[in-house]
Amino acid sequence: MAERPQNVGIVALDVYFPATSVLQDALEDFDGASKGKYTIGLGQDRLAFCSDLEDVISMSLTVVQSLLHKYNVKPSQIGRLEVGSETVVDKSKSIKTWIMQLFEKSGNTDIEGVDSTNACYGGTAALLNCMNWVESTAWDGRFGLVVAADSAVYAEGAARPTGGAGAVAMLIGPNAPLVMERKYTGTHMTHVYDFYKPKLASEYPVVDGKLSQTCYLKALDICYGRLCEKFEKAEGKPFSLSEADFVVCHSPYNKLVQKSFGRLVYNDFLRQASYLEATALAALEPFRNVGMEESYSNRDLEKISQQVGKPLYATKVEPATLIPKQVGNMYCASLYGGLVSLLHQKAGALEGKRTLMFSYGSGLASTLFSIRFREGEGHFTMSRISSALDVANKIQSFITVSPEEFEKTMKIMETRYGANDFKPVAKMSNIRPGTFFLIGVDALYRRSYDVKQAEAAANGVLH
After folding, report:
1. Distance from CA of residue 76 to its chain's centroid?
2. 224-254: pLDDT as tens digits
3. What confidence tens digit (pLDDT) does each residue in 320-331 have?
4. Radius of gyration, alpha carbons of the chain
5. How far is CA 237 from the centre of its chain?
6. How confident is residue 461, by pLDDT bands cut at 50, 70 and 90?
7. What are the residues whose beta carbons fall under 8 Å from the beta carbon of 22, sequence distance 6 or more?
8. pLDDT tens by residue, 177-228
9. Which sign does the torsion angle of CA 339, 345, 349, 355 carry?
10. Where, in this chain's numbering, is CoA bound (predicted)?
11. Which of 273, 337, 367, 394 is in the most buried spot, having the most CB atoms within 10 Å?
């Protein structure tokens, strides 16, 4: 019997987000919102967005081509390609089929996988699918490739500042520097209407914000409990946050991430975790017998749990919040933008560390899983990943537009959704070199793409 692949996980990563962005404090002034509503209340700094030159397909093409080039991966080395997205461009044709243009030139059309869709969970579904393939008897020795990509847009109003856009590509294989600890996974799925997109003529969702937050926190509680049970059964000792060096959460907005970590601390309190000091125990003791359903609406508990967890938040969570706060909600890519942030912020200090990853998609699907970091070997190492991500330069290259320009772009994008027979009107100067862009959509709704030439020659980008 052939030896099964070991240390299967994420071998390489890359991230892409649009250069066009708007500052959240400027949006506060423009919308007439109270000072700090978006920057403190939501915890966001900036919002990146697509003009009509870009969409989920162009972002996916950009991040995949960039990853293949940076890590010198030949298109023939990919055996499975899974896309996670909730941004609907076509109700039948998968985003994966557009990406296949990057592989057809090498003659590789033998690539399994299509798209996974369930709100912000699709990227995790795609990741687990690729992991399962590499670990199965169907694996043919090639890499899996996961793309998590979305353009998150909302109708004019209170939810619009929680938008964003971006894509993350992940190469999956054995001997990975980011090893998935498969036995430590907790999943919770059920039926609920907290956020959904029933209006097929519109890109905007129907959102019950209060319900969605409760569903998110409840899913986190359940997933955490299930992960703890599996860990304790395997290791013979209790699990708590002391067993995890970092925590990365899906981030619709940063304030919810802060609440989520406080929730984990509260769970540890109820489970009598030994790391909690006397002052923390005293502060949380009045909430010991609060019913679980009641606890989700208890503002005092929410405030105290965040205060108790604040020192740990700074070390375990804050390093993973850079891109989510600067780019905004990337839906399926959001969780993995947090992982990229962690690799960027803690480069060189992750060897042997563990991070928890919480993925949530409304509707509802959720999974809490564990990644263990190792330096890796040969061509694929953590140090190479952190360098190739080039996060600082990408953030520094933001083009900041006015809220007026942002609103104008949103109105144009409304007319472009589901439209045909048009060419983009946005400025080419507003996209970075090497970025794929939409040339136009013809009368039969067929979309055509090209790549900005300046870096095509310099970096060998296919087009």
Report:
1. 27
2. 999 999 999 999 999 999 999 999 999 999 9
3. 999 999 999 999
4. 22
5. 31
6. very low
7. 46, 47, 49, 400, 401, 402, 403, 405, 406
8. 999 999 999 999 999 999 999 998 999 999 999 999 999 999 999 999 999 9
9. negative
10. 212, 255, 259
11. 337
Please report the pLDDT score of residue 236 as a whole number. 95
* Alpha carbons 84 and 56: distance in angstroms, whole number: 11
Q: Which of 463, 462, 420 is nearest to 441 (CA)?
A: 420
- DSSP string across 41-54: IS---EEE---TT-
CB 207 within 8 A of CB 195: yes
3-state class (DSSP) for residue 283: helix
Structural domain boundaries in the chain: 9-459
pLDDT digits (tens, 9 = 90+) for 424-451: 999 999 999 999 999 999 999 999 999 9
34 pLDDT above the threshold of 70 = yes
Contact status, residue 257 vs residue 321, Cβ threshold 8 Å: yes
Q: Flag whether 255 is marked binding.
A: yes
Q: What is the mean pLDDT of the chain?
A: 95
Give strand ranges (E) for 218-303.
246-249
pLDDT in tens, 126-151: 999 999 999 999 999 999 999 999 99
The residues with which 196 forms a beta bridge, in sequence order, are 206
Contact 123, 84 (CB under 8 A): yes
Q: Measured at the alpha carbon of residue 426, what is the angle toward residues 423 and 427, in degrees to the nearest 5? A: 120
Going from the C-alpha of 345 to that of each of 46, 197, 273, 440, the distances in angstroms are 18, 35, 28, 38
Reported as a pLDDT band with limits 50, 70 and 90, residue 454 is low
Token pair for 113: 């996988």
Report the C-alpha gap between 174 and 74 in whole angstroms.
Answer: 17
157: left (phi over 0), alpha (psi -120 to 50) or beta: left
CATH number at 9-459: 3.40.47.10
Q: Which of 131, 137, 98 is nearest to 114 (CA)?
A: 98
Contact 358, 291 (CB under 8 A): no
Dump the DSSP string for 390-442.
Answer: -HHHHHHT-EE--HHHHHHHHHHHHHHTT--SB---S-GGGS-TT-EEEEEE-
What pLDDT, on the 0 to 100 scale, is given for residue 379?
82
From 153-162, 351-360, 453-462, the region with the lowest mean pLDDT = 453-462
Q: Please, which residues bridge with residue 12 across strands?
A: 171
Element (H, E) at 336: helix 334-345
Q: Which residues are catalytic?
A: 86, 120, 250
Residues contacting 388, CB < 8 A, separation 6+: 12, 14, 70, 71
